[in-house]
Design goal:
single chain; 235 residues; alpha/beta; Spore Coat Polysaccharide Biosynthesis Protein SpsA, Chain A; seven-stranded mixed beta sheet; two-stranded parallel ribbon; 7 helices; 37% helix; binds guanosine-5'-triphosphate; binds magnesium ion
Length: 235
């Protein structure tokens, strides 16, 4: 069974489209799956939409009250998931659900133990009309993280792992946005790999990636460098 963990904050217009896309990708090949939304009390109708979706798809929503944050939502989702394999993806349809079978196949064959959906490997792409600023905003963080993680796109936010291979929660500092990078650095993965994806721009809802989160990322990077250099020290 595969658990698809999706952190959500005010994504009501995307939930049904995502549920359909995930079902199209997984039901055909015969995968048993659950789609788990970890919602930070969006108050935008997401709960009601999920209740309706649950009549048609294996959908669950966990609503966290009084807590906000993408990274903690993902950790919470992974610990609540029932599947042996977990796929984490965004709700805004930027990540193609059609890539999930290829990502899971790599885990199942033993070819890889951390599989990332990647824009920056051969065959991967972003929308052609990204401005230079937006491209730099994506590429520069990846370059800054290069010495930490052997993958080309640790910021994509789309990844698959076996739940049993998650690093212990007390080793993680789930702050900010880049939880895939955190898990990649702090896990004991021997064969991380990347599957090419086309990253689409969100059609509905608004980005939650604020300047504050971007500054948080620099602090996060500092902590990860300290962790790499002095693994025993609390970061
Ligand atoms: N539970 C929860 N989910 C969040 C929070 N912030 C963002 N998310 C979700 O995390 C995913 C990524 O957020 P986005 O706003 O799309 O961030 P992004 O993809 O870096 O930015 P864009 O490229 O502009 O879309 C989406 O599914 C959001 O709903 C949060 O505080 N709590
Ligand atoms: Mg997004």
């Amino acid at each position: 069974m595969i658990s698809i963990v999706v952190p959500t904050y005010r994504e009501a217009d995307n939930l049904a489209l995502l549920a359909q896309a995930v079902d199209d990708a997984l039901s055909g090949p015969g995968y048993d799956y659950e789609l788990l939304f970890i919602d930070d009390d969006s108050q935008d109708g997401s709960e009601e939409i999920c209740a309706e979706l649950a009549t048609r798809f294996p959908v669950r929503i966990v609503v966290r009250k009084g807590e906000r944050g993408l990274a903690t939502a993902v950790i919470h989702g992974i610990s609540t998931a029932s599947g042996e394999v977990v796929v984490v993806m965004d709700a805004d349809l930027s990540h193609p659900a059609s890539a999930i079978p290829a990502m899971v196949a790599r885990l199942e064959s033993g070819e890889s133990d951390f599989v990332l959906g990647s824009r920056y490997v051969e065959g991967g792409s972003i929308h052609d009309d990204w401005s230079v600023f937006r491209q730099l905003n994506s590429i520069i963080p990846s370059l800054l993280a290069k010495p930490l993680c052997p993958l080309k796109d640790p910021m994509s936010g789309f990844f698959a792992i076996r739940r049993a291979e998650m690093p212990p929660t007390n080793r993680l500092s789930p702050v900010g946005y880049k939880i895939a990078l955190e898990i990649c650095v702090k896990g004991s993965f021997h064969q991380p790999s990347e599957v090419p994806i086309h990253f689409s721009d969100r059609l509905h809802g608004e980005s939650k990636l604020s300047l504050k989160e971007q500054l948080n990322f620099l602090r996060h990077l500092g902590r990860l460098y300290a962790y790499k250099l002095r693994p025993g020290v609390e970061t």
